[in-house]
Protein 1
Amino acid sequence: MDRTFTLIQPKFISPLDEDFRPAVLANHNFRREVEASGDGVPLVFALERPDGSVSRYETMVFCEDHHQADANLFYAERLLKFLLWQYGGCKVYVGGQHSVGEYLQQNYAPEGARSFDYFFMGKTVYEKPFTVVLCDISEVPPSKEQERSLGRHLDGCRIGFDLGASDLKVSAVVDGGAVFSQEILWQPRQQSDPQYHYDAIMAALKMAAEKMPRVDAIGGSAAGVYINNRAMVASLFRGIPEGRFDEVKNLFLRIRDEWRVPLEVVNDGEVTALAGSMSLEDNGVLGIALGSSEAGGFVTMQGNITNWLNELAFAPIDYSPNAPVEEWSGDRGCGGSYLSQQCIFRLAPKAGIRIPSDIPDAEKLIYVQQTLEAGQAGAVRIWQSMGYYLGYAIAHYTDFYDLKHVLLLGRCTSGQGGSLLLKSAIEVLKHEFPDVAARVKIQLPDEKSRRVGQAIAAASLPDIKHITH
């Protein structure tokens, strides 16, 4: 990191992580310094996806002969990193200083520091070469967003499922009411045979089907990137060899054909946001699921879902050079290291909690949660720290999303942990970002909704146009 880019110590310091330097504070400080210089110049990004949709972001940086101009590079790289995982895209236009654009080209290249992002956005997700295009600001394409209405269908007999890294949730839903819900422990990440995933999902669907007179539709929620019901990439399938990944990519198409009913599978974060929008009867909802990783999803002010990625687990929220490294991408300071069970496992030793190493991750989380319910001071500090992370993360997210509500779901919000998270996050917003606190409401659903709400909302995804029995 260039030393001309200033990191800001937060007012609320994590009791277990004094190095945390929120991205939102650093970005705000950078923009204030640019404005105060009187020599700011525009920097414009446009992220294009293969369907022709374009997301655009405009900001200001120091002019090239300013003594702080080197700070532009760090600011622009971290900003592009966030935009890539918010919007997605395989072609990035950089309008403005060519020195900034060239730096981004070097980083987001096959051999660059962001090679993971290069291959992920190109070959893996969009199946197109990833490119960074330098251009004049006048040549940056205009915004061209695509939204679609999805979910909110409550008619008929439906199955909803939610695939997490440690548990599989399934619900039977009749005319909008859940008649059956079940959590099933599984370990998908360690499996190298796609048959394991197929068998587990099919067994869960059959379990739910037995609770209803028929099955009219199936809706699914799962971590990862899903395009037209195809799994382009997902940590759930990390153990699958590359040569067999097509079996996973088309897994849900196979299940749909075998059940012979409408089926929709989307990213779990989108379903989190949809569940929030449905329960709140309002729009402008960012859903954050704090589970095995961090899942994000967004319902626009118009009540629609976008074709953005919203993979906030990979979006940076901490600019500290000592920030933890995200295990998959190899990048530092990404959301998944702070707003998930990964954070709990990382902070537990600092809190004086020794987690047994010979149990699955789901049981490790339960173990730490039990120490919290027992009032162990170290466990309290873990969730307080996560709440501080969450507060600064939400303030950061409001710089990129037009929001009215943030809905929190996921196993990390169960029990006392949820209220501790909420209290600490609100404290941060109230004192550091009063404008955000005044216009954005953070919602914690009741315990039942937190644990199985994903599967119930997922059931509403398919549109049953014509039902014949």
Protein 2
Amino acid sequence: MDVVKDFHLDSKISMKDLVSQMGESGGFQVKNVALAVEILKTMLKKKNCLRILSFPADIIATGTRGIIKDFVQKKLFDLVVTTCGTLDHDLARSYKNYYHGDFFADDKDLHKKGVHRLGNIFIPKESYGLIIEEKMKKILEEIYAEGKKELSTYEFCWEMGKRIENENSILHWCWKNKIPVIVPGITDGAVGYQIWQFSQDHDFKINILKDEKLLSDFMWKSKTSGALIIGGGISKHHVIWWNQFKDGLDYAVYITTAVEYDGSLSGARTHEAISWGKIKEKAKHVNIEGDATVLLPLIYTTLLRK
């Protein structure tokens, strides 16, 4: 058995030494953070490994968007799977500001003032619905004028990224680096609603089966695969679902705040995915229970140092 060691910290400690101590401290989640860093480091260095990033939209309303942007700007991942709200927040924040708020604000008062609350983030109506409608109308008209009437979600995300002239944008860098962004639930958000509305008087459609063809090609061509899966829901399941067809992920890091006892997919741990063949029996895998907005800055900074 390994001995539990105390932290010995000072103002000059390096990130490398901090994470090393995290792995030795015997802390409850801190040890899993250290293990996650080692798994991700191995995954990112592995040749011929398909590297997948999955996350829900809520974190894109926070400064964590900057870390996701760095992930794709630096080409650390080959494929992104997310939800429609990511497109909403990335587009909106490319032109308008979101603001610090309060979990305990008076929501009735906020509604009267035209302010949406996402956790402790305040989003004025003009910073969300209005700007998304304005920009999406222009984007859709431009796409249609170019004769593009049927696109997969990843092609549509590239079209958005090409037109978002803001280097803080995730979609901008995914377009620039040709990293596909798969959005299985494309209609579940403001951007998806604008696509539907545009389709009412234009012969324009999103072909989600084309996304599935791309995923199939990725799976059959990849020798190994690994994923950083933040949160749960459809984006999480789409990643592990497709990996069962190549006998499972070789590397998997889950970050979640969901509970396991209700049987939900969002709360399911990596070991449950092994029973389905979605993660290999011999895979390197870990679950971290905690807030991604706290954990990702620590993990990313450590990966940069390594």
Protein 3
Amino acid sequence: MLYDKPIYRLMADRAILVELGDEISPSINDRVRELFISLDKQEIAGVTDLIPSYRSLLLIYDPLQISSAELENQVNNAHQHMDAAHIPSPKTVEIPVVYGDDKGPDLEWVAAYHKISPQEVIRIHSQHTYQVYMIGFTSGFPYLGEVPEALSTPRRATPRTHVPKGSVAIAQRQTGIYPVQTPGGWHIIGWTPVTLFDPQAEPPSLLEMGDRVRFHAITVKEMENWQP
């Protein structure tokens, strides 16, 4: 449910969590994005960071420059006067994926769990357009949703200590791409040659909150010849 007005929760002595709803939903996430962009444009004195997520926005602030009450007033004003017409349209990004074999070691397991073929897993995963709900966990990691119910898969019982950069994975009704090598507990069904995070680029993350992502299957040979 989308709240009529924000709910505020103090997080220690220099952060406020602004909740806009109580569930994972594209409409709630769109409102979080709109509030995030609106506040970011204002550059409120004393606010040092804005961290958006599925249904909330975390504001990090300097209490010596602005009080929590003053900050809540600023957020309330922004929330009441948000104009979606002035919010930039999200971009759609096509992500090529090599599914299965050594690039997607969990594809067969996922297929067996759902009692379908690996080809059907690929078809379901790649026919949907996903919304970037948030960037988190590690730099540039996109939380994408929602995976169709037919492919909803629990996390691995035992996380891997090393998940290769570029791995495309699913967990429950989320899918994502590992931008760097890291531990992870999602099921790896494929791999992409696309670079998701480059600290020298501007912006460093290829994907941003609100963007749309579509996956499409490629062969190993196409992967070897792929050019960004």
